[in-house]
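haha ok so turns out i had the wrong file open the whole time. this is the CORRECT one, sorry everyone. sequence first:
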Amino acid sequence: MLVGIPKEIKNHEYRVGLLPAGVRELVHHGHQVIVEKDAGGGVGFDDAAYEKAGASVLSAPEEIFARAELLVKVKEPQASERAMLREAQTLFTYLHLAPDLPQTKELLQSGATCIAYETVTDAQGRLPLLAPMSEVAGRMSVQAGAMCLEKSHGGSGILLGGVPGTHQARVLVIGGGVVGQNAAQMAVGMGARVTIIDRSLNVLKSLDQHFGNRVQTLYSTHDAIIEETQKADLVIGAALVPGAAAPKLVTKAMLKKMRPGSVMVDVAIDQGGCFETSRATTHDDPIYLVDGIVHYCVANMPGAVAKTSTAALSNTTLPFVLELANRGVEVALVANRYLRQGLNVYRGHVTHPLVSEAHNMEYRPPESLFPA
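then structure:
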């Protein structure tokens, strides 16, 4: 199979779909790999490293999209990239389609097969290709929040861990999954007072066993969120419904009861955000204020730590890339039901129920569309 790795073009996105080691694995299995010029420069791998691994380096994205049978990316295709997708081509990347109608429509129009990292599952029902970036984003959320609490960024001027004789900052984490646990770990390590809210008692029990009395765990209710946001200096939005738009758990009305200079970091922004006042921002312009509350809603947070993020992502995506290339896309999707959960769009059809529900589009089960 001919596998293509374009250079990412989203704002301040330095990650790359595959490292040279992954290219070498594909070539070892008899596949061809084409890489766009400078695709790996942001993570410290020049074109020569990819050529040494067996790839051909091409100068223009149009060449990659025109030739590749399987495109391996990191972020959702931007408008110019979606225009180059074609029928019988497969795209393997993060998509986050539920809150993004324009992208969904254009992927359907392209006729391409689109597999989303964030909805691929495993035998335990986990999201193995989302988890590494959730770990990174969860840890980064506290770093970003600590920065935003500084007066120069509009914050209240409180240090997360305080110093002897002063108050520690209060951190509220909404959602106790991978993002939430990693955010809590960082916040606890920086000396903050941490509360985690989740609606799963099993998750809360697990967090309690993991953190002990270093965090407060609370069952998620509307009243609990209202009460805790009023106390918090930093709120981390970490709620996720896999494949669906994120639930809006903090309303605009709640902001009026929060302390001015408090900070909200919405890690769920790729799925539309879990704060009513969230809108996607970029690394160039990451923050804005609503009613005196600082919002940090960067849609590709892990792109800022591209070396760590790309290594972590490649470790998990490479086995799936190899399976798609070795077996062929349709055979791999039929044979591997966990990979099939990642199929969001197939040749003009919506094949994920939550994407269908979000956009009121017809849902076609993948099994009904594959050749016998």
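The longest strand covers residues 193-198.
again sry for the mixup
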